[in-house]
Amino acid sequence: AQALLCTASLQVEPLERQPLEGMWARLSPVPTPRGEVAAAELNGKLYVFGGFGPGATANEEYDATANTWRQRAPIPQGVDHPAAAAVGGKIYLIGGFSGRFGPVNTVWSYEPGTDGWTRRADMPTPRGALAAAVVDGKIYAIGGRGAAGDVGAVEEYDPTTNTWRPRASLPTPRDHIAIAVVGSKIYVIGG
């Protein structure tokens, strides 16, 4: 198995690690250099969304087999620090900051097959620097930073009904967290 690393800095060289050999190889550069992006995998392709500066509306698709990037339909609303999650053949881009750290609650679904965006129900708590995870077909938007500081909100989105509902808040509000799913449990790290 191979892992792909796209740095969160303004560097444009993603690197591919060969775990058995312990070596790194340069891959095709990301077309739009930027930081504070969201990324998700769907159908074997990696999608990178938003970011600081000229990349705020960028939507770029990476094909690991061909080692190529291509520009896709731009995000209708430019954001940095969003979260992304793939479920049901679509990628959901959630929240983020618009402009200079102005938290937003917008949710967009992106369908690679049609290269089109659809506005979805707004997330109840506007925030950026949040994380998103999928469990049992539902998306969980966790933590982040709102207008008044760190947020402990955990909100569940059901793509089938296009509705949100609150879940138990984080015991400690935090932003810039890492999350992972094991089975049906979400683990929140750092922040």
Architecture overview:
Helices cover 0% and strands 45% of the residues. By secondary structure, the chain is mainly β. The strands form 7 sheets. Strands 4-5-6-7 form a 4-stranded antiparallel beta sheet, with no helix packed on it. The chain has a 4-stranded antiparallel beta sheet with strand order 8-9-12-13, with no helix packed on it. Strands 14-15-18-19 form a 4-stranded antiparallel beta sheet, with no helix packed on it. The chain is globular. The chain starts with a strand and ends with a strand.
Give me the number of helical elements: 0
Number of strands: 21
Through-space gap between termini? 29 Å
- What composes the largest sheet? 4 strands, antiparallel
- Widest sheet: strand ordering: 4-5-6-7
In terms of DSSP E residues, the strand content is over 45%
- The coarse overall form would be globular
Low-confidence blocks of residues: 1-11
Q: Could you state the order of secondary-structure elements as H and E?
A: EEEEEEEEEEEEEEEEEEEEE
**Mean pLDDT across all amino acids:** 90
Relative helix content? under 10%
The radius of gyration over CA amounts to 16 Å
